[in-house]
Design a protein that fits this description.
mainly alpha
């Protein structure tokens, strides 16, 4: 959807392969960041906080979403 609107705005055309490569960029960054985080966690030895904190951060938006549904 975003790439299609970009194509219309700048009068370009991408093949299916090029669209796949463009959309894969964010997943490449995510994979590298996960590997770096795993290396840092292994070296620091503080694995409990490196597991608990991301889980807590991921839980907050979903908790507010469910709370908004229950208030209706």
């Amino acid at each position: 959807m975003v790439i299609k609107s970009f194509e219309q705005a700048f009068q370009t055309h991408y093949t299916a392969f090029e669209i796949g490569k463009i959309t894969a960029i964010r997943f490449d960054f995510a994979a590298v960041s996960m590997l770096l985080r795993a290396l840092y966690t292994g070296r620091s030895g503080n694995k409990a906080w490196h597991i608990a904190l991301p889980r807590w951060c991921a839980r907050c938006p979903s908790a507010s979403y469910w709370r908004s549904l229950l208030q209706c």
